[in-house]
Structures are given as structure tokens and as C-alpha cells.
Amino acid sequence: MGRITLEKVSKSFGQVDVIPPLDLTIEDGEFVVFVGPSGCGKSTLLRLIAGLEDVTSGEIRIDGTDATGVPPAKRGLAMVFQSYALYPHMSVRKNIAFPLRMAGMDAAEQERRVTAAAAVLNLTDYLDRRPGQLSGGQRQRVAIGRAIVREPAAFLFDEPLSNLDAALRVGMRLEISELHARLRTTMIYVTHDQVEAMTMADKIVVLRAGNIEQVGTPLQLYRSPRNLFVAGFIGSPKMNLIGGAIAARHGAETIGIRPEHISVSAESGDWHGTVGVSEHLGSDTFFHVTCDGIPDPVTVRVGGEVDLHYGDDIWLSPDTSHLHRFDGQGLRVA
Amino acid sequence: MATRHSRSAARLMMAPAVILLLGWMLVPLTMTLYFSFKRYLPMRGDSLERGLDWVGFENYARFIGSSSFWPSVQATLLIVGGVLVITVILGILLAILLDQPFWGQGIVRILVIAPFFVMPTVSALVWKNMMMDPVNGMFAHLWRFFGAEPVSWMSDASVQSIILIVSWQWLPFATLILLTAIQSLDSEQLEAAEMDGAPVLARFFYIILPHLGRAITIVILIQTIFLLSIFAEIFVTTGGSFGTRTLTYLIFQRVVDSQNIGLGSAGGVYAIILANIVALFLMRIVGKNLDR
Amino acid sequence: MARAVSTRRKIVTTAVAWAIGLLIFFPIYWTILTSFKTEAQAINNPPLFWGFDFTLENYAVVQERSDYMRFLWNSVVIAGGSTLIGILVAVPAAWSMAFVPSRRTKDILLWMLSTKMLPAVGVLYPISLIFVQFNLLDTRIGLTLVLMLINLPIIVWMLYTYFREIPVDILEAARMDGAGLRQEILYVLTPMAIPGIASTVLLNIILAWNEAFWTLTLTAANAAPLTAFIASYSSPEGLFYAKLSAASTMAIAPILILGWFSQKQLVRGLTFGAVK
Fold this sequence. Notes:
The complex is a heterotrimer of chains A (about 325), B (about 290) and C (about 280).
Chain A lengths: L3 E10 L2 E11 L4 E5 L6 H9 L6 E6 L2 E2 L10 E4 L11 H11 L4 H14 L15 H13 L5 E5 L7 H18 L2 E6 L2 H7 L2 E6 L2 E6 L1 H6 L4 H6 L6 E3 L1 H6 L4 E4 L4 E4 L5 E10 L3 E8 L6 E6 L9 E6 L5 E3 L5 E2 L1
Parallel strand pairs in A: 3-8, 3-9, 6-7, 7-8
Antiparallel strand pairs in A: 1-2, 1-4, 4-5, 9-10, 11-12, 12-18, 13-17, 14-15, 14-17, 15-16, 18-19
Helix pairs in contact in A: 2-3, 2-4
Chain B lengths: L3 H33 L1 E2 L13 E2 L3 H8 L3 H31 L5 H9 L6 H12 L6 H8 L7 H4 L1 H26 L3 H9 L4 H29 L3 H5 L10 H11 L3 H30 L2
Antiparallel strand pairs in B: 1-2
Chain C lengths: L6 H28 L4 H4 L14 H10 L1 H32 L5 H12 L7 H10 L6 H24 L4 H9 L4 H30 L3 H4 L8 H6 L9 H21 L1 H8 L6
Helix pairs in contact in C: 1-12, 3-12, 4-7, 4-9, 5-7, 7-9, 8-9, 9-12
């Protein structure tokens, strides 16, 4: 079981309020991702749940019992660190077995669990090596192994993939998702990368300056961002945000339209512009179009085969059914 | 990064070290301060049980007013200054030499560092007898070999002899620290200067020396603190005679030989103040380093 | 990148460096050499560099007449004991300051350092008085305590600088893995800091072994370590060069060997981490 509830949890360092009081519920078995730009308090929030930091006020409950003052060792949570934090003086086997040893488990059971975890994580051949002799991806798997053997109430991941190169990151992302699908244990995952958030999460928590901006499934966030910040943060390439007269015409202070919801025509449309730089991804092509009356270039997604060139004159038409409207406070207008 | 748990644990775990050092500092310091304002001559029947007479600043005045005070200050300055000049200058030269590529670098380094590990009483006695003895010492043999009259070092050139012995002991320390500092100098900087047409001497004065500035300051400050309290070297060689009675040794004699505790304590307070002035500078450098 | 140096320059450097190295080392070399001579050969004119009868007699005589082994044992107990107690007191303190720093940490560290700079002679009488009061004069335990206290600031400092290099993540990982404070220090911090702790131990044994103020002033016959034993040779009458040399060689040999292992740590320890 691993239902985690935060009630009016806040954190300040001296005079600085890093996290104003917030409420959040993480259901048992959920994969929750905390996402936000650096300095938004997502890692601090994770460390509060882990018990590595004290809350300034509020209450943290794990499966209904108050865990606020409980030291990290007694919370029954496991954590995977950004730096992996493997014990350099222990073999892989000893690293993975360490939490079991701390729990006073007998040697045979320790061995059985370590062997099982190693098999799952493809580490069987490396059990007697030291962390220093492993590649980044292997270290990552050892860190995960150390977390899973003790069958925790929940896993906490603190930007676990940011030290890996791009190709490995995609692989590990799949492995972690796979692990979650198999174990169905609560996972809380912190990242600044919205792609990781979108691809892995059951539920995304978008944070900015310690505030929760929105909570929802990836598609909820993508389809109906609650405010301008979420709209601009979720989705790649970014949503086009347009203000001024064009927005006013749609009854809003700012309007947002995703690159795939704009159609392109050589003859006619709503906005006239000139094709700028293009990015060919094979399946898709992104054009950056400079439009009359819009200060920033508009990003448009078209199929891979469209034949447009730098400097061409074109017309763009937003799909009004996918238009996002925001008011003067940056909040979504229904 | 901390929680209340770890913070209270931290305070608890720091307590033994802090309490021990606090006691070690405060108790004797308070006693010294107390005695320095008292007439306390155990040989003449003064004792703690019967109570000591308060004499105000008399001990302080008498310590400074005594005929041995200024000579001891002079001896202290001569010895500390002499050793500092010799070790810093030779240390820089040696460090530069050891930084050059040559065969047997490791071994030569060991040879140069060795004196630092020799206990003060041994180095003082070895120098006094084996090197500087006017009859059988190595110097006497050398002097005779060149047809000169051997010098009786310990009586005729006592201060110079002490400076030589102590410099020999501390040269490795200066060399080692300066060598470490030189090795941290980016060799590209030197190469760039060479490309810019700076000759050897200019490279030394404009690049190497400024780079060593901090290390030199540290060597001077740390050595000053240790040198102000050299004791064994004088104790086993001249015993404080022939103009080698330093401030430290004078206080030692006041306390141990003439058993004038009050006077010695006043001297001790002077020594503590002196050391603290030097320490203040050192702490500022070390403290700055902590902030990084 | 290493710079290419002409062979001729390298030969000259080699010659100069070796000459200076041997010159500096000469007093030690001469002492060791003399310890193997007879007393007559030791004061031979001209001095004998070779061609003397190699004898171990001096070593036997030193041990026989003055019970050298007792002084050696005192040195070992005092240097080893003070270092051991110092480490036990300093590891928790250094852990606290390195991993749970507070606003006062820096001040505490600097204050500890300042106690190291207290001139010993300034507190000689009070310490003797306390020693008399508690019957510690001329005891190994008394001297062990004093040497522990004078070296404690250096031990704390060295350990602090080594601990600071250990990523705090790893200690937090141990906490998450269910380790209590004791287990965190015992199973994770200490094994990782072994090289640092070892060099701290080494340097402090050297400093304690060579300490020559308190060892000379607070001991007499029973607890005197080698520093005091050698000092007893300073009386001019009955001075025997070969025996002095043998005694000196025995007193410095162990520490010379330890010292060579600790060259690098020496810099760090004696400059309180200001030069690395």
C-alpha cells in the first residue's frame, strides 16, 4: 500500500518560503510526476515526503498514519537519487542488499531477493563489481535495484535520468514505466523534463515557485491547461501564445494554439506570414512562420512531405475548436 | 539539508569535542590570568591554601621592566625572523627546483622532507654534537680541512646556530607547501608568458611569485605560531644562555627555575596576546577558504 | 601537458637537486652511519665515511643501560592513545559540521583552531597544578590526554575537510535505506572516509610522537617518551657519539618511515585545508 496525503504542507528556509501550504493526494499505485522549471520546489517537496527535510507546518500521511515527524529510515519509502548515491565501497550485491541488512533480514532471504532483483534488472553478471566499474545506465539500475528489494510503500525518484545521455534516457524511461506496470507500487518522480512527465505519468503535478499550478493526467494537462504557465510548459514544441488584437478578436487577453492545430494554405487563411526556419523530423516538419501582427514566430506542425521553403508566402488558419483562451490573470477561460 | 532529528544529533555529537576544548582553553587560561595579578612565590612560602596577595598589574610591569625582557624579545624576533627569511626564500627556490623534471624526483623529495619528521630533541642534539661541536663536529673537520680555526658554535654564534637548526627543521614544511602551490599553477599560463616573450626572471616575478602569494602568507603565519613557542631546541642546546633566551624560554624559567608564578603568568598573558595577534591574521585567511 | 626539456638541462637539474637533497639529508645520514661505529671511530679525525668496523654494539648498550624499550613503549602508548581518543571524539564532531552545517559551524571551527594557537608556556603552571591535583604528573594517561587535546583541533579540521568531499546524497541514501545514525556513520561514512581517516591518524601520530614541550615538562622517570629520553643525552659529561646516534636513530626511524607515507596529507593537515 502506498497512499500519500499532504495536508497544508509548507516549507521555509529561514525567511524564504520555498513551499507555501499545499494539499495533495497521491493514490496507491499511482505514477505521479512532479514537474516544473528548476527552483520550483519539486525536489524539496519530494525530500519532505522522504523525510530528509522537516516540514515547516502541515502533515504528511502515509497510508493514513501521520508520518510527519518520522525519520526517513522508518517511513518505508525508497528513493533513487539523481547522482545514484551508490555506496562506492560496496559491491553491487552489497549495495542492493544494504536496505535488507539494515532491516535485519536473514542472509538467505537477502540473497534470494538480491538475485531476483538482479535478474529483473539484468545485473546478474555484475553483482561482484564495484559501482565505479559500471556504466551510467548500470549504476542507475543498481540504484533502482536497491530501491525495489525492500518492497517499499512508494518509490521516490529525484531526476534519476538527468545524468544519462539521450539514448539511454529513452531506454531507462521505458524500463521504469515497465517496472511500474509490473509492481503497481506508488511512484513519485521528479523531473524538469516535460517529455518524461508526459510519457510516464498517470498524474502530473505542475509546480511553479512552490505552488501547484495544475494536477491532472497528461492528456488533461495537454488539452486543457488551467493557465498560461501550464500551457507554455507542457507540450513540445511549445504552444503558440498570441496576445493583442488577434486574441481580442477571440474574446480573450491571450490565446493559445498548438502547432498541430494550425492548417497551412498557399492561397488563403486567417493569418498571413513568411516561412522562416524549418525543422525536419522525418514524420513531421515544424515551420517557424513570421506572421503579420504577431510579434513571435508561430510554430506550425505539418506532415513530413510538405514542400515549403524559407521565405515562401503562406496563410495559416487556427482550428478554433482547439483554441485555448486565457484572461488577464493568465487563467483559462472556458 | 537537515531535519530536527539530525540537527539535535549533530549538537549531541559535537558536544564532547566542544566541551573538551572549551575546558582545555578556559580553565588554564583563567588560572593564568588569576595568577598574573597575584604575588605567588611557592619557594617563599606563598601557597594557594593561605591565599595570595593581589598585586594588580605589578607582575606585568615587572615582567616588562626586568633586564631580561628586551633581550628576550630581541632573541625571539631574531630567531623567528631569521628562520622565516631562510625557510621562505630557500623554500621557494627548492620548490621550483623540485618542480623541474629530473631523475630520481621521488627520492630527492623524500631526502628534503625528512628533517621535518625528526623529533626536535634529536635534531637539536645531533646538530649540537655531531655537526657543531668545536672538536669533533663535522663543521670543525671542514673548517680544519680548509685551514680555518673551528668555531665554537653554541657559545660564539649561538643565535645563528639555533636559527640554522630550526630552519633545517622547518625548511621541508615551507618547501612542501610551496611545491603543492606551484604544482597547482596552470602550465599554460607560463607557456603563454613565454610566448609573450617574458624572460625567465620576469616569469618568476610576474607569474610564479604572485601565484604563490597566498601559500607564502600561510607558511609565514603558521610557522610564526610554531616558532614563537620553540622550546626543546633551546632546552637541549644552550639552555637559554648566550643570548638565546626567547620570550617562551624566559617565561619557562620564571615559572620552573625561579618559581615566580605570578611573574611567569604575566609573561604568559603577553605571549598569549602576541600569538593571538598572529592567529587573527591566519584565521581570516583560513576562514575565507571555508566559504568556498 | 609536460614540457619537453633538453637532456642537458635535465642532467644539470638532476645533479643540483641530488646535491641539495643529500646536503639536507646529511645530518640524518651521518647520525645513522655513526650509530654503527665504535665510540673511538665516531670521533676519529678525519671523519670516517667508510672503512670502519660495522657494529651493532651501540644499540645493545643503549637498550641495556637505559631501558630504551620502556621509553619507546611510552611513546607508542602516548602517541597512539592520544590519536585514537582524538579520532573517537573528532569523527562525530566532524560529521556534524560537515553534514549538518549551521550558521555557527564556521565560528566553531575557527574557535577550535584558535585553541591550537594558545602558547603552551602560557598555561604551563596551571596545567602542572591540575596534574598535581589529579595525580597525573609523570603518568602516561595524563600526557595522552594533553596531547589529545592539543591535537584535537587538527584532527577535527582534517576530518572535516575529508568529510566535506563525500557527497551528502550517499548518506541520505543510507537514511532512506533504513540506516540509523550509528549505522550511517559506521557502515557508510567511515568506510568511505578510510583514506582520509588514515592520513589524519598518521599525521597525528607523527605530531604526538615529536611533541617536545609537554613531554619534557610533565614527565620524569615513569612516563617519559623518547623525546625526553633523547633530551637526557644533552648533559655534556659522558657524551658518547655512537650511542647518542644509535638512540637517535631508534627514536626517529619509525616516524621517518610513517612520515614518508604521509607527505601529501601533511600539507593539508598543517595548513588546515587552506592549501591542498
